[in-house]
Design brief:
about 0% strand, 2 domains, 7 helices, mainly alpha
C-alpha cells in the first residue's frame, strides 16, 4: 500500500504518473483520499497545556479526568458531525452500550483528537475556551516553549 502527501503541483503530477502506471499493471485501484492537514503540534501542545492549567485552577479533577471529559464532551461531537467512519463506529459500539462513566474511561483507548484535522482541532480548542470560561478559567493560547527552554527557565528561577 502506498501513501502520498500531495502538497505541491509537482507531487500531484508525480501521483498522476504513478496512478497511471499502477492502472496499466493492475487494472484495479482502491483509493482513500483525505483532505486537510492533521492537527498541528502547536494545537496539541496547547490542549495539553490547558489540561494542566484547568487542573491547577479548578483543583477538582486530575489531568487525565479533564482530558477524558474534553475528549468526550467536546471532541466526540465534532468527529461525529464531520467523520462518517467515526460516527458509525461510535454510534454502534460506544453510544448505546456504555454508561457516561464508561465512556469517559473509553476515551483512554479511543482516538479522538489524534484523528482531527487542523480545523477540527481548532473547534475543539474553541469549545474548551468557551466551556471553561463559564467556570472562570481563562484559557489563552501561548506559543509553547520547547522542553529544554522550560527546564532552563525553571532552573534559573530556582
Amino acid at each position: 500500500m502506498s501513501r502520498y502527501l500531495i502538497n505541491s503541483e509537482e507531487r500531484f503530477q508525480s501521483l498522476i504518473g504513478d496512478l497511471r502506471e499502477l492502472w496499466r499493471r493492475n487494472h484495479y485501484l482502491r483509493l482513500n483520499v483525505t483532505t486537510g492537514k492533521d492537527r498541528s503540534l502547536t494545537q496539541n501542545a496547547t490542549a495539553h497545556m490547558w489540561f494542566s492549567q484547568i487542573v491547577r485552577e479548578l483543583r477538582e479533577d486530575t489531568e487525565l479526568e479533564v482530558k477524558r471529559f474534553c475528549k468526550l464532551t467536546m471532541g466526540v461531537p465534532i468527529l461525529r458531525a464531520e467523520d462518517d467512519e467515526f460516527r458509525e463506529f461510535y454510534d454502534s459500539c460506544i453510544k448505546p452500550h456504555l454508561s457516561y462513566e464508561q465512556k469517559l474511561k473509553a476515551m483512554d483507548a479511543l482516538d479522538v483528537t489524534s484523528r482531527m484535522k487542523v480545523s477540527q482541532m481548532q473547534q475543539f480548542l474553541d469549545a474548551m475556551v468557551e466551556h471553561y470560561a463559564k467556570l472562570g478559567v481563562v484559557l489563552v493560547a501561548e506559543k509553547p516553549q520547547p522542553r529544554a527552554r522550560r527546564l532552563n527557565e525553571q532552573r534559573e528561577a530556582a
